[in-house]
Amino acid sequence: MDCYTANWNPLGDSAFYRKYELYSMDWDLKEELRDCLVAAAPYGGPVALLRNPWRKEKAASVRPVLDIYSASGMPLASLLWKSGPVVSLGWSAEEELLCVQEDGAVLVYGLHGDFRRHFSMGNEVLQNRVLDARIFHTEFGSGVAILTGAHRFTLSANVGDLKLRRMPEVPGLQSAPSCWTVLCQDRVAHILLAVGPDLYLLDHAACSAVTPPGLAPGVSSFLQMAVSFTYRHLALFTDTGYIWMGTASLKEKLCEFNCNIRAAPKQMVWCSRPRSKERAVVVAWERRLMVVGDAPESIQFVLDEDSYLVPELDGVRIFSRSTHEFLHEVPAASEEIFKIASMAPGALLLEAQKEYEKESQKADEYLREIQELGQLTQAVQQCIEAAGHEHQPDMQKSLLRAASFGKCFLDRFPPDSFVRMCQDLRVLNAVRDYHIGIPLTYSQYKQLTIQVLLDRLVLRRLYPLAIQICEYLRLPEVQGVSRILAHWACYKVQQKDVSDEDVARAINQKLGDTPGVSYSDIAARAYGCGRTELAIKLLEYEPRSGEQVPLLLKMKRSKLALSKAIESGDTDLVFTVLLHLKNELNRGDFFMTLRNQPMALSLYRQFCKHQELETLKDLYNQDDNHQELGSFHIRASYAAEERIEGRVAALQTAADAFYKAKNEFAAKATEDQMRLLRLQRRLEDELGGQFLDLSLHDTVTTLILGGHNKRAEQLARDFRIPDKRLWWLKLTALADLEDWEELEKFSKSKKSPIGYLPFVEICIKQHNKYEAKKYASRVGPEQKVKALLLVGDVAQAADVAIEHRNEAELSLVLSHCTGATDGATADKIQRARAQAQKK
């Protein structure tokens, strides 16, 4: 135990700090870190070095080199810097490298040195140049803060959604502040800067002077400041050698430490552990590293070479030319188990397991002692928790073996925590490997989440490892393997040294019908890389036409898009392509394209009927479709024309079209309509009233109602209205007028071609039974019974039915007989039926 704790260093009475090696760096740096611009991403992220920045002692012809390494020193990218002078480097939360230039331009590069985009911090920054810059992280994303040559600050809290904010001016500021940093309070970014002995806080509205509570007297300048990883705490290094630590709101002091060194440190960062009450700050000078906190003593380390500090969620990473180390507070579970002479349940369980492996009876003694205290569950939990915070796999295994041993003596200990820790440690050990180079701690891993870790493996193009982790953790395909394969395919299409056919085949063989993978997204990436043919080949594997068509249109393969849309049977999709084609092609080519696609042509005609009538006419003309062209002109004559001359002209055009289509009936009907229109206009002029747009029958009826019987008869002769139809029209019109005298004259003018039953029915409809009886006697024998029943003469109807000996008529009369009134008639019918049956 005491050997294991040899690298533990106490800070006061309640906390230990340890520093252990993550990697032995083998990155073959040709220059010292102090001669480079350095940026290291948190959560075990990559390291960027801009070698040979613009220094006076360097030759002007020597161009800087931007190198990107993994945390283990494995090279990821190297490129010659060809842009302007760089002031600061920093990594975004998405592991994109932000390079802030002197002119205010920010260039964004990927993990492998691929240029992504650039943006400017505004004209004011361009005019005054950049003196200093900070890249910071908030809950909204990654931000950039700029100090200009005019000693003004400009910042953007989220580079993904760039909104520049010019901070208020500091009164009387004539030179650059001695130090400054970005604070995030209440979801808003603020600037804290030091000018001599004064501190100023800049927010979006004002500049206010602030004073740290309990600051030691005699301070004439602040040389360095550091904000914690979570932006909750602040540390200030003064020219008197004191380090003040308190809340970031500057309302509460935590502690103050005198380090007896007045020289400004190179770096100062916080070193704290989540849910720990201990607060510590790590201060680095050229060859000295000091850990200070709420204790009279400090922990000091000698730095053998130039080093760089990277603040993390639960500690500090320290890398140099040769090593990469991690400094952190020893977690409570590890401290309980491993501290000297510990009698904690976890320590006893670990000893019991070791003695058990030696087949010693002491194992039983240790185990009994834990059980007697009722602390076996606590012991197992301590070992599981401590295993998560260990970096060496051997110690992890030892602690997990102890936990497994203790579980055997518990009846109801849930196995979830043990199994989950085993899985998490296996994942962590895999990504900590030197060739992967992501030295995550357990706390960082839980904060980062497995999805983000997988995204970072994908960014590093470590697709096999990412897939193995997904399969091992049994993640849903859509969130795991499918997503990673899609990223792999998007990377594959960028390999321009492989033919389109081979790339498409390889992607299809690997992906197949994997759920959650969109071939259209992969094709879009291929098109973005300038590989249009590859994109088309990939779209052949996309089962959803709705995803194929938009990309084909974007690639200007409209005819292929039209074919795909028609194959899908989705009319909305076809309309989308048609409208795109209409805007893209000239009119002739567009119509020729439609002629080769009957379904598309039919749909476009439907569209034109409601939206573009002139285009519809052009389509019919091009196809020599005279029948539809005639119908079009007929509709147009009523829809567009108000003048009678225009209507007649349109109808004449329609008639000519029908003749060309050899539709004699439609042509004649159209000509008759023209004649009727002219006649209706003449009738309006001579008689007044409304005749236009009436049908032929309505025109005749209107004339009869107006008392113009001769004109009605003449119109009937002119348009060859059959006598039966004319009689019906006149009968109906006279009845509506209740002109019974004229109706009687009309009935006697000649023999009725429609018989006299309609006269009876019309009179009854008009509630005139008296007039109806006049015509009932004139109705023919076959309809006599019905006519008599209509006028209510049931007895005579019975006599006629008996005379006719017609069973149907007898039943009809019987159905009209009412009990009391027509009893005798009903008996007569029954007797007639009985006699008929005897015969």
UniProtKB/TrEMBL annotation:
Keywords: Coiled coil, Endosome, Lysosome, Membrane, Protein transport, Transport
Main subcellular location: membrane
Keyword Transport: yes
One GO MF term: actin binding
Entry membrane topology: Peripheral membrane protein
Record has Transmembrane helix as a keyword: no
Coiled coil regions in record: 349-376
Residues annotated as domain Vps16 N-terminal: 4-420
Vps16 C-terminal domain boundaries: 517-835
Parts of the chain that traverse the membrane: none
Domain of life: Eukaryota
Subcellular localization: Late endosome membrane; Lysosome membrane
A GO BP entry: endosomal transport
GO cellular component entries: CORVET complex; early endosome; HOPS complex; late endosome membrane; lysosomal membrane
Quaternary structure and interacting proteins, as annotated: Core component of at least two putative endosomal tethering complexes, the homotypic fusion and vacuole protein sorting (HOPS) complex and the class C core vacuole/endosome tethering (CORVET) complex. Their common core is composed of the class C Vps proteins VPS11, VPS16, VPS18 and VPS33A, which in HOPS further associates with VPS39 and VPS41 and in CORVET with VPS8 and TGFBRAP1. Interacts with RAB5C. Interacts with STX17, MON1B. Associates with adapter protein complex 3 (AP-3) and clathrin:AP-3 complexes.
Its job: Plays a role in vesicle-mediated protein trafficking to lysosomal compartments including the endocytic membrane transport and autophagic pathways. Believed to act as a core component of the putative HOPS and CORVET endosomal tethering complexes.
Recorded family membership: Belongs to the VPS16 family.
Official protein name in the record: Vacuolar protein sorting-associated protein 16 homolog
